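Q: Protein A?
A:
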Amino acid sequence: MTQLRLLLLTALAPIAWGTTYLVTTELLPAGHPMLAGLLRALPAGLLALFIGRAVPRGSWLWRSAVLGTLNIGAFFPLLFIAAERLPGGVAAAVAGVQPLIIIGLGWMILRERTRPLATAAAIAGAVGVALVVIGPTAQLDMIGVLAALGGIAATASGVVLTKRWGRPAGIGPIAYAGWQLTAGGLVLLPLTVLLEPMPARIDLAAIGGYVWLGTVGGIAAYVLWFRGIQQLPVAAPGLLALLSPVVATVLGVMVAGETFTLTQSAGIAIVLVALVSGQAFAHQRDGLGAGSPATRTGEPAGVR
């Protein structure tokens, strides 16, 4: 698989996740973030386990639990809390700092050096996202802001550990995603039962929202995402994640009737330039060859 095709396929994941804010506010019952996270994770995880026909063994029992907790069990409910308590654009704007967190953790944990220009692109992308999604009428709820920050910190840690541990030989991306989705869902199951009452009513629109988040935004997106972050330089997935708030903002304009200002147009332009230039800079890093991350993930080079 060429790097360009890998990038494009990996980019589909944050594009799908960009729909989460609109689906949450327009279709799902309010006040049930743990239920939303549970229904997004556990059914998709069990389906992926059935399709992949492989379960974690040995050290991968606890590794899958750690990754599933960070990428799914912690991230999903925090994401839905942020989506409910903040305007979609503001919640997405907070996520714009994720590339910088990933670059920092990648240096500390993986000792993977990122070119200064790639770091500058990540900073520019965060600035562009802020221009896109933060407007003068934004209502900043501190609980929502903290939830958004906690969610992106959890998933940034999961991205770096996913690159560090790789994927076991012979295990496909569907089974690997299923391990994490199931582990995260099992973390959320008792918390949801104990701490969150069931909605008084779940209509057809909500059912459609849960199905969308569990299939397109769940199993499909995470299969593409986990495969991509294992084979791309550490800065690349963080920069691709900038697509999510851009999609969220565009959908807000097109579907929810939000106003699209000149400042937002400038912000989208900055994000796209940062995305393209950041990918170019990230792939020019020293050593992207025999010792590159693509050959340190437990998956032999050339095997897709």
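Q: Protein B?
A:
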Amino acid sequence: MTFEQLHDCFKQDDFPSIENDTLGYRYLLLRSMSRNDLMEKLMTEKNINCPFKKEYLKTLFNSDITEQEIIRFIKDNYRLERESRIESEPVLIDQLQRLQTFDWGGSYQNGLEKNIVDNYVKKIKNFDELNRKIDSSILDSVRGYTLCSWYNHWTSIIIEDILKDQPSVLPAIGLVQKVDFFIHQIPFDLKVTYFPEELMAMELKENGFGNETTQLKRQCRNLQLLIPQDLGSKALCIHLYNKLKENSSDEASNFINELNETKRKIINKYKTDPSKLKTWLYENQGEKRFDASNRFFLVLTDEDNVHESWKLKRKVEFLRQEISNHFNMNRVENLESLITPFFWKDGRQYEPYSDILFLSYKR
């Protein structure tokens, strides 16, 4: 295909057509480093002239520069960028470890602005009451949303660097959506996630456990433990779980052990056959952010308390060791095995490449 045809495919998220074209890898390599400063640097090194920034990518694509030269340039520049981050990594990890609670303040699913508009702007008519809310719950929501976003941003950069450091991985050095790195010449978008709460809730019911929050409430009532009325559903679930976990009674201990063991069995079921989880993650993504790009899923699970799986994102030595083991032991001979068919709400079937790494932590 021509540059224009490949470019149109990229804008339409048609990665299979790009990957199957003889010049597709060349296009994606250049696309993955398509920052003006990087392209200018490459053109200067190779004595390529182009007066218009909008034409940089096309000019490089149509030049006589080889794929190996592009790859060498990417590796050299990634190494320079990585060296600067390595120096500051210990301080960054120390800062990340200072976050003790991971609470979006009710804003994660709908976004901060929507949360404020729906729950305060449209519901409160009294000026003084609104100001009291701003000084209390709205401020808490903004703080929680900001801290969680900050934590996710920097831990994602650390994890992405660990993956890009693997010998078989070629990093993307530009800020291009849906291309974080290449494995076997295939572009992948990294998705760091946890075992999906919605899927876990469905599996708990199918395993005869029922609704987790309902069962936690029932157990607290049996033990005459206070059930607060001022917490949202997710916060209440975590609060009651921790309350029972810290309770010294045999009833509470047996209940928590049963719940955790049931969750382990559910997680191991998908760990044994990860293709089911990959399909579920594609088919249950948000409609506004839907895409069918190739993905590398990193699923983090704390087996002792799934509610604290978020802390694994900053366990850098654990992550580095496990990710290195995965790439050392899993040499994909048949790329067809990575194809993940799934159906979307538009009635179409998509077939992206995807890989998945389950990392479970047990104290």
